[in-house]
Design goal:
By secondary structure, the chain is α+β, with helices and mostly antiparallel strands. It is built from two helices and seven strands, in the order E-E-E-E-E-E-E-H-H. Helices cover 24% and strands 46% of the residues. Strand 6 and strand 7 form a beta hairpin. Pfam families: Band_7.
């Protein structure tokens, strides 16, 4: 077995070539993996900021520039599901669409 290190604030999901993605989330520390068979996929589970700029129209047909700053982090228990359904770049795929819709609804509801 070869050692694999998971840094502080990170979690790992183990991909096994024979069994697929395992349901166990591995915490911080050094862990032993079977070379060539198991591979760790490491996720950053610390709160991270993300700025999302949006240009939207208001009720009086003017363009409004809004930038939303989000602090986000994944739910560690759901990391195997996030990896299998969305991928490692879940923040790039999910956050822009959600924030755009939320900001548009806020601008429309504002007087």
């Amino acid at each position: 077995p070869s050692p694999s290190a998971v840094d502080a604030g990170h979690r790992a999901v183990i991909f096994d070539r024979f069994r697929g993605v395992q349901d166990v989330v591995v915490g911080e520390g050094t862990h032993f993996l079977i070379p060539w068979v198991q591979k760790p996929i490491i996720f950053d589970c610390r709160s991270r900021p993300r700025n999302v700029p949006v240009i939207t129209g208001s009720k009086d047909l003017q363009n409004v520039n809004i930038t939303l700053r989000i602090l986000f982090r994944p739910v560690t228990a759901q990391l195997p599901r996030i990896f299998t359904s969305i991928g490692e770049d879940y923040d790039e795929r999910v956050l822009p669409s959600i924030t755009t819709e939320i900001l548009k609804s806020v601008v429309v509801s504002a007087p």
